[in-house]
Amino acid sequence: MEIKTTGNIPGNNLRIAGGLKELTLWAILLWLILLILLPSPIRAHSAPEERIEHLSARITTEPANAELYLERAALYRSHRHWRAAQTDYERCRRLDPQLTRVDLGLGRLWLETGRLTQSVTALERYLETTADDATAWALLGRAHRESNEPEKASIAFDRAIDFSIRAGKNPPPEWYLARARSLLGSGPDYREKALHGLEQGLAVLGEPVTLHLEALQLERDLGRIEAALSRLDHLQRSANIDVTWLVLRAEILEGAGRPDDARIALERARFALATVPAGRRQTSAYRELEREIHDRLQRLEPAASRVGSTGD
Amino acid sequence: MRATSIFILILSVVPGSLWAQGETLVEAGTAIQYLANGSNPGIMGAEWTAEGFPLTGWLSGTYGIGYEQSTTGGAINLIQTAVPIGTASVYTRAVFHLDDSSAVSSLFLGSDWDDGYVAWINGVEVYRSPQMPRDGEPQWDTRATLHESSNGTSPDYGQLQNISDAAVPALHDGDNVLAVGVWNAPLPSSDLVLVPRLVMNLALPPPRGPYLQNGTDTQIVVRWRTDSLTDSRVDYGIDPGNLNMLVDDPAPTTNHEVILSGLDPDTVYYYSVGSSTELFAGGDSDHFFRTAPVPGTHRSVRIWALGDSGTANANARAVRDAYLTFATGTHTDLWLMLGDNAYPTGTDDEYQAAVFETFPDMLRRSVLWPTFGNHDGIAASSASELGPYYAIFTLPTTMAEMPIPSGTEAYYSFDFGNIHFVSLNSFDVDRSAPPEGAMLQWLKQDLMDTAQDWVIAFWHHPPYSKGSHDSDTEIELVEMRENALPVLEDLGVDLILTGHSHSYERSFLLDGHYGDSST
What we know:
The complex is a heterodimer.
Chain A: H1 19-37, H2 47-61, H3 66-78, H4 82-95, H5 101-112, H6 116-129, H7 134-146, H8 150-166, H9 173-185, H10 191-205, H11 209-221, H12 225-238, H13 243-255, H14 259-275, H15 278-281, H16 284-306
Helix pairs in contact in A: 2-3, 3-4, 3-5, 4-5, 5-6, 5-7, 6-7, 7-8, 7-9, 8-9, 9-10, 10-11, 11-12, 12-13, 13-14, 14-16
Chain B: H1 2-13, E1 23-26, E2 31-37, E3 59-62, E4 65-68, E5 81-82, E6 89-98, E7 107-114, E8 116-121, E9 124-128, E10 161-162, H2 164-167, E11 174-183, E12 191-200, E13 208-213, E14 219-237, E15 245-261, E16 268-274, E17 279-282, E18 288-290, E19 303-306, H3 314-326, E20 334-337, H4 348-356, H5 360-365, E21 367-370, H6 376-379, H7 388-392, E22 412-416, E23 419-423, H8 438-449, E24 454-458, H9 475-490, E25 495-497
Helix pairs in contact in B: 8-9
């Protein structure tokens, strides 16, 4: 190919003569186009995506390896590629019908996609062979709860908690809450049992406030006002700021028909509020709380004034 | 294609762990001779454990051995050799062969058992489970205290006990005898189970640390790991040449965790770690920590926040070095890891490389506060608090540690000076709004309770991002924006730090925007 030069090329550098330089121009243009179209090298290619690619490559060389499909299915599921996950789980089952973890994976998949009946079936099948899997029991509990089967849910969460403890691990507070709420879903007769379950969780987990609050509400529902107040005292003793606990105390007392005591609690709350740092007091949550204190006091004030009046 | 095939082949042969797995000598399925003792067998003490003991009347079987009254549940899957219900104890003997006993450098014993057991090698007692009386040779009707087996479908041998000191000298070339007796709790008992596992030459994980955890104004946790079992000792003091205080823990372990309490706030302490007989690290001016100031104290605070730092490569080291250069002469009060602390799957090996070998200096001088990323969540689970993330870090959970306890290390809070820090879990914890979601219900109570001037929240998945992840579409990001932000904003969060998207993104001050980017 003959290369011609044009000597100096003033101005427009795209005036290029000669076949080789033309090729270079197209190469440059192609590179620019690719640079724009291809994903940025700065964009992170996540390890799960890489792992999926790696598994896919291995599957082409080991198409009968059920474990590969199982692992890839779990990754697809975690990325919410439901159809791909389902396909892999089904393929895995065909390859190895004895691989029970397929049922666990499918159970999760159906649960996350709202196919609750199928989820329950898969999880129950898994638990027939792996009865001590605490997480699987918790998933089954969730599936039952979302299927509006509170009694079955509470049994499943019970098993989850039990197997977790047997294995020397602390169940998460969420399981204790879920068990209690499932029991309550079975009816008011289960409040005592729900409360007992929460107490177990409090003892095991170092008294998470979420379980205390749930238990406190149950005590109120059971009419055990002093027990509820005692629990509140306990929470307040460890707290830095009393305001929310005092407002809750006022709510409990008011509900129990003790307006004078409620008003005292609210006055104390108002006083405590004045000691909260200004920056915190200006948050919308605290402003809301301040309004609530004011409104409750207003509501209680006339009632307290009427009580003991000598006549109208 | 060939290059890809080679790449795959290499990945296939590299073991998941860099540590040697050891050689199993005895486990479930190993052939045994046994004697089930429902009545006095006429054998004194431990004489049955000797190598040449006559086995007249003994039966043949395989591990696991025992009985289970239930026909469908309990330990039924662990038992290959059944003994009569109500058996008080079972004596078992398994033979293992060693061509060259001098090649055995370590021996470890584990078991899945119910209720108590004792093990001998060639007549030398090498292990006694905590349920057995501490003294004397157990007799056929000795009673153990209660211990439940895993009741699993396969044995769970638990933590392997290092029995090397007693067992290795007892070995010889040729056939050796592992004798294990299992004893019941006071009868009647519904079960009795023994499935032991004997492993030789198991290499322990590599040492690490020391590193600092869960620091307050008066307390700190010092952790380190050794490659052999030792007791734990921390010497400390305000003068590096005179560490005049110490805390001891006699329990032999490789994962050491010592709490130093009664400390003075905002004070530099020097320290060393080791055992009662040997120094592991420290005792110099390089090993120190500074306690937090009294909560509420107004002073400058230096915080180093790292996101998705777990690459264990030159990039990570470059970032580290750049920070250390920048921070020269100023102590880092605390540092945060915003998740994905060890790539790609958060295993212990990966944490060793990405955290302990990359940041040894920072780890021994400043308390590290982590949060849980999606990559950490491949090898760990917040539901069970199992996995390397939870094994490595010591985080506050109880009422003794925080006024509004979360009850879980998955999410927690702490104070430093006049800053209240909150670590949330955006990955494998329920992200529902309160009161339904426990994490955000706890968050609400926690933030209502803080009197600190500043609130800094950190977690892994960003509520707003158009970097390598999209907060318009990815569920973790969406839910944190829709559910966590309202709570945080209502309660005056000042700064939120997140990772996950591998780009530097920052926003104007935002309040009340919970929709996607088009809104």
